[in-house]
Amino acid sequence: MKSILKSGAAVFAISAMLVSFTVVAEEAEDLKSGYYFASDEIKSIQDDDFGNPALLLLEDAEVLWSEVDGTEGKSCASCHEDPATDMAGVGIKYPMYDEKLKKPITLSQKINRERKEKMGAKEWKWESGNLLNTSAYIMLQSVGMEYDLKIDGPMEPFYKKGEKLYNTRNGQFDMACKHCHMDYTDTMLRGNRLSYGLGNGFPAYRVGAQKFVSLHKRFRGCEKRLRAQPFKTQSDEYVNMELYLKWRGRKVPVEVPAVRL
Amino acid sequence: MKIRLFPSMTILAAAVFALSFSASANMTGPYTLETAATPLPNTKPGSAENGRKVFYHRKKGNCLACHAVTDLEDVLFHGEVGPPLDGVGSNYTEAELRLQVVNPKVNNSDSIMPAYHRTEGLRRVLVKFQNKPILTAQEVEDIVAYMMTLKDE
Q1: Cα B120 to chain center, whole Å?
Q2: Within 10 A of B148 (CB to CB), how many other CB atoms are there?
Q3: Pairing, β A211-213 against β A204-206
């Protein structure tokens, strides 16, 4: 009798702990792309296989891929002749640990490094059309795939820093990313429905800017909204947060070209 | 005697001056329901008419970002992050409303709502907003006066 009561109490205690834990933690499978929170107009632009203006930018990137640039007389195509096969599953591995720099690097940083070291070409500016179109073009070769990231081993401290920043209140409005993108997803903030803010569509074609915009630029915009002093594009802080975000959204497939407000 | 008293009097006067100055420009120290029972220092009685404008002005209260208010239904897009504010003038005291606007973290430390009249304990504030509260003391009083007009039908 006593042992039944004891085991019953143990089961109850364990269940209570599990329930309290699962109420707080989210399941990666339950997260959704920003697409689902966008207005019907935005969705219809993204769904338009002919009229989506971002498709023209991807065509530009395709042409650029074969353009010779730099002292070595090479183009991207010189080493990566067929992007569809050579770049398949590549973009989804970033941010990736870099042995030389001993920290994770982003796809944008890798593109610029390849240009500099292999092509002898000038590095592109972080928000330039050339870099973002090319970045989106590379992500296109992984469209529909899930992110393939490592957050263990040498990546772990960077992941943890990203997670910390995500959960830290900042700015005059004193909010953390998690307040909007975890606690209040799917509710209206003025005229916009709050998404999970996963980044699976980035660089995304933003209808206001009428071009691809990087994830870090999106971070900067959000931080300024909170009246927080933002970090720089491609700063360590944002690279870490990108890693955290993409790991959080690892079950949400890559969308290219994603159209966002 | 005169020489000994003078420095301490100066220090005392300076301290009183500094304290009175800081109390009006910058709320420091714990803000409680008790403190919230009186209007913020150096303010005129709140104007509900002005408060309504501060309430929906995007660069000031921008309260519609998170709250819906029937009285402002002609303004598009009311948020739903926070509860609708219809009837708060009937259901809450002026002190409770003032407390919530000045520092909602007193009621809920995990609140998403910003503290509209605090400048301490913030991180990485944009340079142009540093050491400035989101709303001035008068704007807080005006908004509280406006919210007190949102009565139950």
Answers
A1: 14
A2: 19
A3: antiparallel
* Euclidean distance between CA atoms A70 and B92, whole angstroms: 69
Say which of A171, A175, A228 has its CB closest to residue B112. A175
- pLDDT score recorded for residue A26: 84
**Cα(A168)–Cα(A236) distance, integer angstroms:** 16
Contact B143, B40 (CB under 8 A): no
Please tell me the distance from the alpha carbon of residue A229 to that of residue A212, in angstroms, as a whole number.
Answer: 23
Are residues A173 and B134, on separate chains, in Cβ contact within 8 Å? yes
What pLDDT shows up at residue A209? 94
Whether A89 and A145 have beta carbons less than 8 Å apart is answered as: yes
| CA B118 – CA B30 distance, rounded (Å) | 11
Nearest to B79 among A179, A188, A227 (CB): A188
Entry field: residues in chain B: 153
Catalytic residues of A, which ones?
222
Q: What residues of chain A lie within 8 A of the CB of B114, using their CB? A: 172-175
Phi-psi group of A70: left, alpha or beta (phi > 0 → left; psi -120 to 50 → alpha; rest → beta): left
A172: left (phi over 0), alpha (psi -120 to 50) or beta: alpha
| pLDDT single digits (tens) A116-162 | 999 999 999 999 999 999 999 999 999 999 999 999 999 999 999 99
Chain A residues lying within 8 Å of B136, measured CB to CB = none
Which of A159, A139, A156 has its CA nearest to residue A93?
Answer: A139
Interface A:B, Cβ pairs < 8 A: 66
Tokens of A55: 């498709």
Residue of A nearest to B127 (CA): A229
Biggest CA-to-CA distance, chain B: 70
Q: At B48, which amino acid appears? A: A
Return the CA Rg of chain B: 18
pTM of the predicted structure, to 2 decimals: 0.85
